[in-house]
Amino acid sequence: MTAETDAQPASVVIVGAGQGGYQTAASLRDHGYRGRVTLISAEDALPYERPPLSKAYLKSDGHAKGEEELWLRPATYYVRQSIDLVGGTVTRIDPAARTVRLGDGSTYDYGHLVLATGARPRTLDVPGAELRGVHTLRTARDAAALRASLAAARCAVVVGAGFIGLEFAAVARESGCAVTVVEALERPLARAVSVRTAEHVTRLHRREGAQLLFGQRVVALHGDRHGGVAAVELADGLRLPADLVLIGVGVAPRTELAAAAGLPVGDGITVDARLLTGDPHISAIGDCAAFPQVRSGKRLRLESVQNAVGHARLVAERLTGAPRAHYDELPWFWSDQYSTTVQIAGHDDGHDTEMVLGDDPDAFSVLLFRGEDLRAVESVNRTGDHLAARRLLDNGGQVRPGDVAAPGFSLKGHLASLGGGTAAAVGRAMS
Amino acid sequence: MPKITYVAVDGTARTVDVPSGTSVMRGAVFNDVDGIVAQCAGNAQCATCHVYVDDTTLDRLEPARPDEDDLLDFTACPRRPGSRLSCQLTVTEALDGLIVHLPERQK
């Protein structure tokens, strides 16, 4: 697409005030943008960080954290930066008139529109999914409800062994709750990590006393006579007692507004390499955006802080007259479970060789190659490896399987042998 | 309540009250002090809350844990002896009066 794009539009309206929406507004001001910035939030809260919601925020030991501990910035910041925070739900985009309409009937004109609508948790289509004590986890409000439930829970069932489910399972075990994780596939994190890392995660949870059931489907949730959840029924007839159920079966991108406005959508709002939708005055970023990966050409939709922030910065640069040809930032991700940190650098879209660094079964990295090409590195309690991998992959992944096989190989050492990269390269890898 | 002083690159200093138990990073964010990004929300993942602890108050800190130490090799501005990640510095009464200098950039 070569349509003329907006630079220095008179106003920017951002739909969605999660990490990506917030970062777009902040980066616009960082780049000296002086037009009107309107950040529309469907949540009744200042923009906040989501990563702690499935981790520290759930813990009620000591003091229960308040929502203000999650704020990306305090209220004074938005005043100081002339960022108009508007509470409400956008019900319609009119691309011809370049307006958005909110549920209360108010409308906002835009020079450029940024869709940062995020995603919503998928639910289970089984009887009993509406029972009290059945949770999903996406927002601070969800987390507060889950935390309150957990404080009184004795046995929790987690449906889905993804990151959200496993992080919650760890917190629940640490608070003394019995935990069973039910996963339809044969291993945890099946779409996200290698078999080796998945097996470690399985061992970790079992060692901490959680029960993990694989290849099992939930067919019904059963309640007690007060309307609270009491049991989870599996396809093989097994009934697991539960006074708390977390459904962690992934999210669906919020694409409805874009689709209703006639924009192309698939698994996410379809954008080009500059994160523009089919309309040159509308961008989409973060969890809701399906963007083409430069290296593979494949369309990708990622759910991470790094992705949301990276997208937001690219759009802000484009709107302030410093466009990049394409979005090409290295994906990275982390998950904390018990005292273990799992970190992923790069995106594994198919590998044929796995090489392992580290002799400690509780601290190792898995290097994933396709042919001679390093695609991704998974690190378990090896932050140094993860950071070196991020820089190496960002610089083109100058590691070959033959290098790794050499005695005494380390990612940090290899990075140093290549010259370590300049300060600018470091900044790029870390940003 | 412990007082923490944040000194910007241009020398402007701001002293704010930060409750014990919260981090030096959170103290900056909550008080709208510019110069700390904290992209990963204080999880020791991103090295964008780098600060230089003033020489006069450096001896009050516990040494960095290994993951913080690793991250300090990857900050946007050069690592110096006083370099720390402010998300890993938990405020206590013993840190009352801590002075941290903000780097030129975090990313």
From TrEMBL, chain A:
<dbReference type="InterPro" id="IPR050446">
    <property type="entry name" value="FAD-oxidoreductase/Apoptosis"/>
</dbReference>
<dbReference type="Pfam" id="PF14759">
    <property type="entry name" value="Reductase_C"/>
</dbReference>
<dbReference type="InterPro" id="IPR036188">
    <property type="entry name" value="FAD/NAD-bd_sf"/>
</dbReference>
<dbReference type="Pfam" id="PF07992">
    <property type="entry name" value="Pyr_redox_2"/>
</dbReference>
<protein>
    <submittedName>
        <fullName>Oxidoreductase</fullName>
    </submittedName>
</protein>
<keyword id="KW-0274">FAD</keyword>
<keyword id="KW-0560">Oxidoreductase</keyword>
<dbReference type="InterPro" id="IPR028202">
    <property type="entry name" value="Reductase_C"/>
</dbReference>
<feature type="domain" description="FAD/NAD(P)-binding">
    <location>
        <begin position="11"/>
        <end position="312"/>
    </location>
</feature>
<dbReference type="InterPro" id="IPR016156">
    <property type="entry name" value="FAD/NAD-linked_Rdtase_dimer_sf"/>
</dbReference>
<keyword id="KW-0285">Flavoprotein</keyword>
<feature type="domain" description="Reductase C-terminal">
    <location>
        <begin position="332"/>
        <end position="413"/>
    </location>
</feature>
<dbReference type="InterPro" id="IPR023753">
    <property type="entry name" value="FAD/NAD-binding_dom"/>
</dbReference>
Automatic annotation (TrEMBL), chain B:
<comment type="similarity">
    <text>Belongs to the adrenodoxin/putidaredoxin family.</text>
</comment>
<feature type="domain" description="2Fe-2S ferredoxin-type">
    <location>
        <begin position="2"/>
        <end position="106"/>
    </location>
</feature>
<protein>
    <submittedName>
        <fullName>2Fe-2S iron-sulfur cluster binding domain-containing protein</fullName>
    </submittedName>
</protein>
<keyword id="KW-0479">Metal-binding</keyword>
<dbReference type="Pfam" id="PF00111">
    <property type="entry name" value="Fer2"/>
</dbReference>
<dbReference type="InterPro" id="IPR001055">
    <property type="entry name" value="Adrenodoxin-like"/>
</dbReference>
<keyword id="KW-0411">Iron-sulfur</keyword>
<dbReference type="InterPro" id="IPR001041">
    <property type="entry name" value="2Fe-2S_ferredoxin-type"/>
</dbReference>
<dbReference type="InterPro" id="IPR012675">
    <property type="entry name" value="Beta-grasp_dom_sf"/>
</dbReference>
<keyword id="KW-0408">Iron</keyword>
<keyword id="KW-0001">2Fe-2S</keyword>
<dbReference type="InterPro" id="IPR036010">
    <property type="entry name" value="2Fe-2S_ferredoxin-like_sf"/>
</dbReference>
